[in-house]
């Protein structure tokens, strides 16, 4: 099976998390099947289905500007997934989306809440109900 899933190169590590009938895979970049009208589709989530024949389709596209690498948090390893990504060198904000449907849960706060010094390909870290974003000379922490 071969499928073009991105309009450009995928430059960061993807994040994978379970689905009822397969797996979701999130990557930074404009997906080949994302809406053409949204120029800020910098997060793409695919759904891969096992079976005969196997399947791959764009599940949803997240609107943000930036080039961070996504991570996924869950409540127990599979339930209530949230896809997190930093709009590094774009809007410089933290974004969180419901993993199954792509509904925005957190869009980075107000105009004065952009993070300074975050760099492309940035990966955030989840630990102890907090998200950490390392930047030039500082660390940002968010509760979730």
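Q: What amino acid sequence fits the structure above?
A:
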């Amino acid at each position: 099976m071969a499928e073009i899933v991105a309009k450009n190169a995928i430059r960061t590590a993807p994040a994978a998390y379970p689905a009822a009938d397969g797996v979701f895979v999130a990557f930074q970049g404009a997906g080949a099947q994302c809406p053409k009208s949204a120029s800020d589709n910098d997060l793409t989530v695919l759904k891969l289905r096992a079976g005969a024949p196997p399947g791959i389709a764009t599940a949803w596209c997240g609107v943000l500007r930036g080039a961070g690498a996504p991570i996924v948090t869950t409540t127990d390893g599979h339930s209530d997934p949230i896809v997190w990504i930093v709009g590094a060198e774009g809007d410089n904000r933290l974004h969180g989306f419901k993993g199954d449907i792509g509904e925005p849960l957190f869009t980075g706060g107000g105009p004065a809440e952009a993070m300074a010094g975050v760099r492309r390909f940035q990966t955030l870290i989840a630990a102890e109900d907090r998200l950490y974003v390392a930047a030039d000379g500082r660390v940002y922490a968010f509760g979730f």
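Q: And what stands out in the fold?
A: The longest strand covers residues 55-62.
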